[in-house]
Amino acid sequence: MPSTLPGVPDIDDQLATSIVERLGAIEHGLRESVASSDDMMRWTARHLMDAGGKRVRPMLVLLAASLGDVDAEGVQDAAILVELTHLASLYHDDVMDSAPTRRGTDSAHSLWGNNVAILTGDFLFARASALSARIGPEAVRMHSETFERLCLGQLHETVGPAEGEDPFAHYISVLSDKTASLLALAGDLGASLAGAPEGSGDVMSRYGEKVGVAFQLADDVLDLESDAATSGKTPGIDLREGVPTMPTLLVRRRAAEQQDPRSLEILRRLDSDLSDDTALGELVELLREDEALEETRRLAQRTADEAVEILGELPQGPVREALETFTRTLVERRR
């Protein structure tokens, strides 16, 4: 019988009900955590939160915590902490990428300007830091290290690979820092705070690293395949901003090695002015039909398989099975 857990079908009904109930409390806690007496911040801090989202990171905290006592002290704060940190990073990312929309609505910087968007992100990071302090010193350390990785990932994406550095290794390291680090934190905090069996925190941290990379590789596919109505993002927005993705890296490598006309034409368009929507749309169509897209999909699936293999170190049972389903759902999603 299908579960009621949003986006994660066919898991144990009792576990699904447990997590859905707690996600409701976490949603309430998220809104309480950004409450402010400042009139401006009251609107800007809730902007992306009100736009929705999959709440992947809080869900992972709760799934990991279900290996122990999901109601243990600090678990709910940890779930709110990771989502606040994620939301904060989105405000900053949209400024960096000049993204006009996010989650189907105008991005914060489009509405209020770059300065307000950046300061709102900083405000959310501050509220997340207060939660880590409430959980305890170890959570503060883990959160600060993750925050550092988020910053480094954005920096390395911005400046690109160093001379002589493998662009594929560089790209995977960016994904690890920008996306996977927060999923690793979610898994580790959830298991550790819940008193899960010894070693579970480490397993969930390593799992988070793998599933985070798989998640972002799947996002590279979605960035080209989906439309703005379903994804909330303009297809190919990363192309316009010159942000590398796995499909474009694969095309660049093939163009360098084979010099085939199709790859060279895509490369020419990639390096041209894509400010015009028509030019961007034509490039997106070319990439949709290119073998690099399917190659990226296969890489995402292989990385997800590696994440599931790590889960094999956990005790067999409904939680492990749910985490395996969670992994597949993240990689096979259509939005």
TrEMBL record:
<dbReference type="GO" id="GO:0046872">
    <property type="term" value="F:metal ion binding"/>
</dbReference>
<protein>
    <submittedName>
        <fullName>Polyprenyl synthetase family protein</fullName>
    </submittedName>
</protein>
<keyword id="KW-0808">Transferase</keyword>
<keyword id="KW-0479">Metal-binding</keyword>
<dbReference type="Pfam" id="PF00348">
    <property type="entry name" value="polyprenyl_synt"/>
</dbReference>
<dbReference type="GO" id="GO:0004659">
    <property type="term" value="F:prenyltransferase activity"/>
</dbReference>
<keyword id="KW-0460">Magnesium</keyword>
<comment type="similarity">
    <text>Belongs to the FPP/GGPP synthase family.</text>
</comment>
<dbReference type="GO" id="GO:0008299">
    <property type="term" value="P:isoprenoid biosynthetic process"/>
</dbReference>
<dbReference type="InterPro" id="IPR033749">
    <property type="entry name" value="Polyprenyl_synt_CS"/>
</dbReference>
<dbReference type="InterPro" id="IPR000092">
    <property type="entry name" value="Polyprenyl_synt"/>
</dbReference>
<dbReference type="InterPro" id="IPR008949">
    <property type="entry name" value="Isoprenoid_synthase_dom_sf"/>
</dbReference>
